[in-house]
Amino acid sequence: MTIPDSGFMIDNGSSCLPIPPEEENRIITELNNESEANLKEGNLYYVISNRWFSSWQRYTRHSIGESLVDEQSSESQSMDILSFKSADRPGEIDNSDIVLNENGSEGGELEICRMLEEGRDYVLVSQQVWEKLLDWYKGGPALPRRMISQGTFNKNFVVEVYPLCLKLIDTRDKSKSVLRLSKKASTSELYERVCKFTGVEKEKACIWDYFSQQKHSVLSVSNQTLEEANLQMDQEILLEVQDVNNTYPSGKDSTGNELALVSIEPSRSSVTIAGGPTMSNGHSTGYSFNLYQGSSVSSSFSDIDDGYDVYKSRKGERGGLAGLQNLGNTCFMNSALQCLVHTPPLVEYFLQDYMDEINTENPLGMHGDLAVAFGDLLRKLWSSGRTTIAPRVFKGKLARFAPQFSGYNQHDSQELLAFLLDGLHEDLNRVKRKPYIEAKDSDGRPDEEVADECWKNHKARNDSLIVDVCQGQYKSTLVCPACGKISITFDPFMYLSLPLPSTVTRPMTVTVFYGDGSGLPMPYTVNLLKQGCCKDLSEALSTACCLNTDEILLLAEIYDHKIFRYLENPSEPLASIKEDDHIVAYRLSKKVAGRTRVEIIHRPHEKCASDSVKGCQRKLMGSPLVTYLEEPLSGADLDLAVSRLLSPLKRTRSSGKLHNGKENGFVKEAVEDPSNSYNSTNQFMDAAELEETSSRGLSFQLFVADGNSSSCKPVDKDSLLNYSRVVKVYLDWTDKEHDLYDISFLKDLPEVQKAGFTVKKTRQEAISLFTCLEAFLKEEPLGPDDMWYCPRCKEHRQATKKLDLWMLPEILVFHLKRFSYSRYLKNKLDTFVNFPIHDLDLSQYVISKDGKPHVYELYAISNHYGGLGGGHYTAYAKLIDENRWYHFDDSHVSPVNEADIKTSAAYVLFYQRVKSETNAGAGETSQVHVEL
Question: At 57, phi and psi to the nearest 5?
């Protein structure tokens, strides 16, 4: 038979014949849903280049999952978001852009380029989806990856896109090769792979952890995972083989140099942790701890965090100046850790004997492991002089308790800080059993009484060093917009996330349509803050078009003469709207709840319009109209609605010509100017005329689309439409309609910002920390996804919320919200925030009279440089006892002038309260002198 050259493929089970693209999409979607319903460890997934996969999505006009679009980064925003333009069938699967050309690994495995981001550079598909796509399109190469489970308490499943890469050094011939194994593979599996690759008998092989070219420990043949053995990405492992005398090579490396040997298990001393390390010839022999046998934390200190003899400290060399080695995109962790280990109360606490406060029973904690790992790392950083520490053990503990920070992708230093502070609190919580306490409403009681009650309740369940020094309290006031009910609560906080108000504006042109046919469409241009949201746009348009109090605006984006999306989320950032987009707003009555939304889409009349299959695939024109109708909805109701919406476009019966005063498809002052060629008496159809139209049959050729808009059927007067939410109606414009109505008013929508239109650029002004704080404390309505349940109305309400600072902690942390995320956009603000280094006085923002000083001194900053894709974190920290600032850039530590620490990279700011007795001295603060 002859196969039409349609480009489609039909799957007959064994071969590939043409089938429609929507059928491809249906099959892939079903397979994708099936795989998501059967997630388990060991499932096989395949990595596919997003460049090829996006072309397949455009071809099939559908996305498998929202996540494949939501993860778009700012670097890819120049691409048309979810472009639904017609696309050709893609060629063979091509993964060449995500695969390295180098191939020096054992077994000839292909390596995926590093630093790729899921959703931007690649997508993951199940084995069944890959086999189906490969059957249809061929190509490759295949990049299979396994699903693994992560976490100790809250296990989650992830696909290990980047297996552990280990560099094997064979001491026999000095050869070097690369092995790739899952971090969940056991050391026994590692021995099998190494022995098979090198041809060595397993009994004669000895593999060393050779991190940073130093022997650390022998990897035993066991079920211990490579992750538990603290092996890191791209590190070396050393293979030694027994000779004929059943002995291993002497302490020489492959180049003949002496190998630095670090003891596997540090010896114990008789001192407690409070006594610090026992020094022998300048070297520490380890710590002894007051732990009972069998404690979950008793084994934590037997690990060596970095493998170096880090406990040594040169005579006269002060502590706190050690760098942290980057283990592979761990600069975010190093930045956060340096800020915490230079927090004076934490330094003082963890250099003493804190073991009695370890809570191994808290189900919300990590059985004390996180606190012990952090304390051990802090002690090493403060006792190692300037020796760089590799926090391998700490990173391993972190991955166990917080799988989101595992692997080697870049993460957010503030998110890590939040986890660490909360985790340290739970591990050090002095409350062994938390009592149940029922929260009470304020009920008009004095704020002091309610605040004190809330803090006592909080302390009854949460009592730790972190609460003592890092937690404050703010007042939250909620007001119901319906009944005026006021609810006041006092909640604890660990840090304050401050928004960065923008001073840059952008002009936006939006066309406003009447949802009841009472006026002509009219474009309005408004100026808004660039970092604003759709709520700001709606409010500005409401003022510009004189919106009535009983009306609302429904924002929508028009693409290819259809509604691409509704902008119904008021918090949607304006950054998701591009300059060449076409945005419209529909004026509607507020009484639309429970009614059916009707979209009227225009298209030129064709003879095949009655074809129910091809009807929805035809060329479209103009801009859709939107209205709301009550159910039950009949064909006559649709005809009546179309007549009403088109009534402002009726030509004058005398001339039938285009009207004067029209420019770019829109009328200047059309409503206000009585001299235009519209006859006011005929501008709108009266009820009698509409009733007459209804009685004699439909006035228009209307077609209603089915549920997925793949086909449509003609509408007759008596037909009832059974659609609950949205009805898409296609209006065919015959010569009759063109004679009666001027459709030019529905064409040529202006862009949001006309291409080539130059706007005077406003320089981004510096903003102060106080401006950010005032924006944080500003009263604002809750979002629609964060509704408040009013106890008086017994309903969820969009209440207004006001925050006030009530009690400030000794350590005050400010998080500057430089990163914004939405469904369509990720963005970073490089706004310069001018923050005080000395004498940050917050007295005017604290509403309680607790008698404590509210003046603070800056002592640490977590910085973020660059954009979202390839940023870098560093830290500034002040050594309090020498009153000097240092720059911590991973392993590199250098002094920095105080005048240079204020930059637009400042991300998280750490302040310490100035003690009242030293408050008279400007900039003075309580000093913690660390004895080492």
Answer: -60, -45
